[in-house]
Specification:
It is a single chain. By secondary structure, the chain is an alpha+beta fold. It has one domain: 2-Layer Sandwich (Double Stranded RNA Binding Domain). The protein contains one helix and six strands, in the order βββββαβ.
Length: 102
C-alpha cells in the first residue's frame, strides 16, 4: 500500500495557524473509484479506502514510524515554512523607508 504523509494547510476561513500542527496519513488509491449503478454511491475496491484523512499524528517522526512498522511505501511532503517579518506601526512614519506608488 502507498500512503502520503503531509501537514494540511489552513482553510480559507481561518486566520490562525493552529490547525496545521498535526501530520496526516492519507492513502494513495491504486484502483479508480466507481459509481454504483443502484444507489449512486462512490465505491472503492481498496480495503483501506475508509482511512481517508483519519490517521493523524503530532509529529512527522511518529507518522514515519507507524508507516515503516507496517511496511507501507510512503511519500513524505515537507511543507514550506511561512516567513514572518515583524512590522512596527512606527515604521510607517520613518523618513528612510522605501516609498512605493506616487
Amino acid at each position: 500500500m502507498r500512503v502520503r504523509i503531509y501537514r494540511p494547510a489552513k482553510s480559507a476561513m481561518q486566520s490562525c495557524r493552529a490547525s496545521g500542527q498535526h501530520w496526516v496519513i492519507e492513502p494513495i488509491f491504486v484502483s479508480p473509484r466507481e459509481v454504483e449503478p443502484v444507489m449512486g454511491w462512490t465505491k472503492a475496491n481498496d480495503p483501506l479506502a475508509s482511512l481517508l484523512k483519519r490517521l493523524t499524528f503530532a509529529t512527522s517522526g511518529e507518522a514515519l514510524t507507524f508507516v515503516r512498522r507496517r511496511g507501507w511505501d510512503y511519500q513524505l511532503e515537507i511543507p514550506n515554512e511561512r516567513r514572518f517579518v515583524p512590522k512596527n506601526y512606527l515604521d510607517n512614519f520613518n523618513p528612510d523607508r522605501r516609498r512605493t506608488g506616487r
